[in-house]
Here is the input.
Amino acid sequence: MSVSDVALVAALIFAWGMLSARLERFDVTAPITFVLAGVLLTHGILAPLGFAPTHEMVRGLAEATLVLVLFSDASRVRLRELRADAGLCLRLLGIGLPLTIGLGTLVALGLLRGMSIWLALLVGAALAPTDAALGAGVMTNPAVPARVRRLLNIESGLNDGIATPVVLVAVAGVTVAATAGSSGPGAAVAELALGVLIGAAVGGAGGLVVRTARRRGWADGGFAGSAVLALAVCAYACALALHGNGFIAAFCGGLAFGAIGGRGGERLVPYVEETGALVSLLTWLAFGAVAVVPALENLTWQAVLYGVLSLTVIRMIPVAVALAGGRLDRAAVAFIGWFGPRGLASVVFALIALEELGEHAAGSAVTVIAFTVMLSVLAHGLTAEPLARRYGRLRPAEADAGEPDVAQLPERRLIRRAS
Here is the structure.
């Protein structure tokens, strides 16, 4: 980036920080703002300013965002403190998510012409993770029972890490199909396994050191958060250096750090989240700059239909199957099924696929992913508050008696993706 590009981006972030609360009253969120800014800076009235993100910058932003998101989300897992809902969480992640990926893949194969099995899997897996912060009106609305908000919160905090291996295997499959002699899905699986081991080792060792240092007063509170940020980067870099998968290492590193670091380690994670929030703004900007206009130019009725199905049938049927017999009424199941916004994780997966595979190979998949995310930002943003109020009227407040509020839960800070 040139100096003028840096100045433009810095000024935009500053302006958003000063106006964010007022804009969000009108449902103008950070993703909407920065995607629109990316479009205007490259294809709109601000294009003469010459803003042109390079492929290296886009790839770097996407990778940095995913590393920080995976580590911070995973490090906040405390299922032992949510024993009453552990079964439902496991249903959503262990049954609902695989079914969503499978159904999304099958629909992509049947509806999107000329799409290979690997590209279809890429679309299905990239659009399976949810982003609770795009439905912040639901997640912060006390009219919605705390149990429902908690399930949505935990699901969105972990499903991106679970979907990541599938996305990476799909990308490897597309690569080997297009390039003779390239390493394929088998090599990708081996890299994933190595990433698990390296991430668990680095994160576990880091958690142990943090717990010991905090207990003995060795660590300066002003720098401890930076140390955890460095630990996330270390897990990622160590995996790459040893030919493992860095993203899975970051996710497993976060899980190990959260399990061993305890409460002392958990208090340091917000620094990682806040850094991830800043990087995510740049990722939305890059998404608007390099993916939105090409996606709209190549949009077909099949892609539009897939986007609609992705937000409804492909999401809601697996959720209904996963939660069957889970002692939730139909209204709760339908509510959870609808509020599955597609957001930051899907955008990052699309950018990674675009940079790894190129426009020719990944263009059709990126078009579908980009349109679905844009549709989700609009549809879930507009319906979050009214449907939360309506659902709240159907569910009396006494249903929350004795339940901790989502804001008090350790799994995930919603401000990271909302800001």
